[in-house]
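FAQ
Q: What does a multi-component entry look like?
A: The components come first, one per line:
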Amino acid sequence: MSWIDVGALDEIPLRGARVVKTRSGCVAIFRTAEDELFATSNTCAHKGGPLAEGMVHGRNITCPLHNWVYSLETGEAQGADNGRIPTYPVKTEGGRILLDGDAVAARAA
Amino acid sequence: MQKLVVIGAGMASGRMLEHLLDAAPDAFEVTLFNAEPRGNYNRIMLSPVLSGEKTFEEIVTHDDVWYAANSVITRFGESVTAIDTARKIVRSEKGETPYDKLVIATGSAPFIIPLPGHNLPGVVAYRDLEDTNAMIEASARPGAHAVIIGGGLLGLEAAAGLRLRGMEVTVLHISGHLMERQLDETAGYLLQKDLEKRGIRVITRANTKSIEGSGKVERVLLDDGTELKADIVCMAAGIRPAVALGHAAGLDMGRAIKVDAQMRTSDPDIFAVGECVEFAGNLFGLVAPLYDQAKVLAKTLLDEDDTFVVRELSTKLKVTGCDLFSAGDFAEGPTREDIVFRDPARGIYKRLVIEEDRLIGAVMYGDTADSNWFFGLIKDGTDVEEMRETLIFGPAFQGGGGAAADPLAAVAALPADAEICGCNGVCKGDILKAVEGGAHSLETVRAQTKASASCGTCAGLVEQVLAVSLGDSFEMPTAKPICACCDLTHEDVRVLIKTKELKSQPAVWQELGWKTPNGCHVCRPAVNFYLLADWPLEYRDDPQSRLVNERNHANIQKDGTYSVMPRMWGGMTTPDELIAIAEAARKYDAAVKVTGGQRIDLLGIKKEDLPAIWADLNDAGMVSGHAYTKGLRTVKTCVGSDWCRFGTQDSTGLGIKLEKRLWGSWTPHKVKLGVSGCPRNCAEATCKDVGIICVDSGYQVGVAGAAGMDVKETERLVDVASEEEAIEWTVAFVQLYREHAKYLDRPYKWVAKVGLDWVKDVLADESRRKSLVERFDLSQTVYQKDPWAERAAPAEARKFQPLADFTQEAAE
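Then the predicted structure of the entire assembly, as tokens:
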């Protein structure tokens, strides 16, 4: 696994998100109230809503377009909706955000 | 006999000497240096000394008698200035002392923030007896003020001690909640509440600017202009390992002196112990690992085998009456689950963090009786899968059934003088009296006490009071809670936020028994609004509790682009504004739409371009039209008496005045106004939230119209003669709506619930009308700011860009 530095942790507010652009679409990086990081595809499985613009609550994200709720841990849609978004390994080290480079590259391949 | 020199008489070296001299009293001739003019004492017990609960003599661990009995040569008050590793001597003020083995136990030094004025007399750290005595001395004068910089363990103990000595104490903490390294938000909130109860003022997110005074400290200034009186300032902003000696001696250093598991440094004859060491990347600040190190070092010095291992640590605060416990890891990690238990009535909060069926972290506040049991589970890595369901209830519940949280707990906890019905000033005690007198239903209670007889929003609460006092014999009508995160309705939450003076999200989550850590997309925006509407100065709007449009200050479209709409006051514009809009539309490739609200919408703007187009429009004098908020949208007008041959009043002018007064305010749902210059009603004012029709004799103010999912004509609120009165009634109506309506109820829905008669009654009371206007204006001092201008600035604009962009890199 190769880790790619995508920015400083401070750049994402608690209960917030930012996107990382890759050649095959955007990855959303979420930071929870408890300072945990999660990375998923930025694209909602329903109508393609940009998930990084949604609301982070607990370890869930609500899509800004039609309120689909996904688990950030598994990428599974919650409740009555059926769908799944890809999740990617991400971690922090010394205040920097490291995203799994292989996962990002695999998307591009 | 080998010569052992020990530098530093702290808690670690004291314990090490005990082990060493117990095991082999004659192995070494020991010389003990200490920069402080005294021997070993229990430094962590300085807090009870500060508070007056103990004397210094009671916390001395080794006295002169002990040193003499153990033949320890003491060199107290004498600093070691250098170590010569080649000649194996230490240099001090009084000369050279040779060693065969050397132990560095220099501990740590408090971190003094280099603020302007940090050198003034009266600025102390909280590390040794001198600091403690300086604080005790300052507290002797009646009414003296203390400012503690740092809301960690040490700072809070200092605060509590000084408060017990009668000082006026303020704690400044830079982070959002106290003890953020050991506690989560909720536990930090409860701790703050407990400290405030004892009269300690706590300011979080406090950035200290300077310490001032002539000749000695007199006051502390914060970045936001706050000025605090101070007779003493205590810096408790953390500690740094004191490692200058080790560094100068050329030992291997990390953040402190590196040691192996036998406490050896890189020099075979030099050892280190305590807060000045770094082991496997760890630094140490709590006493338990220091004692472990001391034991290992004593063995190493005697050539016996032992190994230091880093253990799980737990924290407790030594402030009488603040019961908190924190252990393990309660943050970061994708595969973790939380179990949360809240008992608002008793101020109890417990949170367990589980990973792969093991308990890995625990935070508790208010009831820490089971903390050792949980700590044991963490240390032992016990498999908790079997007891997961009842785990949070502690060891007593294992094998038994669990108890569910009581949804009525919040109401049961209210004191008798808590106001339930704000309209009629009815307290919980009045209702209980009525219940005792035989009123056993909402209707009879209402008839006897007038509780819920006016606006009715407290009806749910009254029913809960009935349920609490009558138990099972009262059948609760089923009210719909906000969402699955809580058991309360919007109306209940609104009332409780006021009655219980809840001024932060963690306060709401805790006191109202929320079942999720921080709400969801349904309840959090509502709670955020209620808090900012009720506490405009104490609470600040939280962007992370806003849905996308309100967070990004533009409307998201189905393709993920945004629309941008500048304000056109009362629907008036100028050639220059139109040119700027046209140029912006061309520059950012926007579709252009004229809207029903008399403005121009630019569609298809990329998120990255938002700050730039805002800056362009700002440059032409335009501000955000808030076309995306639950707030004031537009005030639609006709040309009125300025141009129209039928116009009776200056409807355009009134519209502009209303828009300039109301813009920027947050409301439960969007608010649209219209002002027509005559009853022909060209501005379609009669289907607006507030619609004013100008007539010869003055102004007809109508409210609660609708032209969306429902279509409904406005109802007449009042007829007034002057423009000023029309504005006053409109502002007061909007504020009443802000204070009472359920989030996402448009005014017409809210008025249907509370009744137009009630609204009229409230607003017809001149003093209430004027105080509503006052409260609205107060809120506007905070919120009437152009969000575009704030976000077009470079530091903020950056947040609209991707964090990183890999689309260009590696392209062939």
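Q: Is there any commentary attached?
A: Sometimes. For this entry: DSSP finds 28 helices and 39 strands in chain B.
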